[in-house]
């Protein structure tokens, strides 16, 4: 996969792209990460990239020329890449979206600053508008880092264990089950016996049940569209009864 990022502050990406999974993914040639300062594509002598909005109003708006000119270079001589605009007006980012984007060969992220973008950027260049939450950041860089990290870790052979991404929270539609490691007893707190039993069928049943319970407790909204089995429905009914008794 090739990922290009258009940003006015490319140095922000150095630490994130140079560490951990993203660094390893590049070393394995699973992804090529490239950050472009689109100020360099400004046609103006002072390399300006923003201006006052037509019609008046607060703040400055990113001009179309630098973004369009940069895109002419990045997207030349190939099929049209997926172009992601980081924007608080965009669709809420999800694991499902990360999995969808991970199947692309070329992604381009546009990170804005100031009041907003000239609408022609949105209308004529962008294929996807993404928001990482209902809040506003100074610019799109941090959001782009979040999305890129979640996408790259899904690429083949990036993670050490191929099952890791498959069993992540949200990938299955449920939150992930609890995890334990050595020592089996620490400060009086013990690991559940079933995990040390060696009975893989019982372990998988425990994990499945705990995954469902954690989702029911913390993100019940996810269960609204989840295809529950008859056994899972029975578990939830039992937890609902226990909850009412406690209340």
Second-tier CATH architecture of the largest domain: 3-Layer(aba) Sandwich
Task: Please list the strands of the largest sheet in the order they lie side by side.
Answer: 2-1-6-5-8
| Uncertain regions spanning at least 5 consecutive residues | none
Order of helices and strands: EHHEEEHEHEEHEHHEEHH
Radius of gyration: 23 Å
Helix content: 25-40%
Whole-number count of domains: 2
**Strand content range:** 15-25%
How far apart the termini lie comes to 52 Å
Shape: elongated
Q: Name the CATH superfamily classification of the largest domain.
A: SPOUT methyltransferase, trefoil knot domain
CATH topology of the largest domain: Alpha/beta knot
Class of secondary structure makeup: alpha/beta
Q: How many strand segments?
A: 10
CATH class of the largest domain: Alpha Beta
Number of helices: 9
Averaged pLDDT: 93
Main β sheet profile: 5 strands, parallel
Account of the 3D structure:
- This protein has 247 residues and is α/β, with parallel strands linked by helices.
- The chain folds into 2 domains: 2-152, 3-Layer(aba) Sandwich (Alpha/beta knot); 185-246, tRNA(m1g37)methyltransferase, domain 2 (Trp Operon Repressor, Chain A, Orthogonal Bundle).
- Helices cover 36% and strands 17% of the residues.
- The strands form 3 sheets. A 5-stranded parallel beta sheet has the order 2-1-6-5-8. A 3-stranded mixed beta sheet has the order 3-4-7. The protein has a two-stranded antiparallel sheet with strand order 9-10.
- Strand 5 (82-92), helix 4 and strand 6 (106-110) form a beta-alpha-beta unit.
- The longest helix has 19 residues, at 200-218.
- The radius of gyration is 23 Å and the shape is elongated.
- The relative contact order is 0.13.
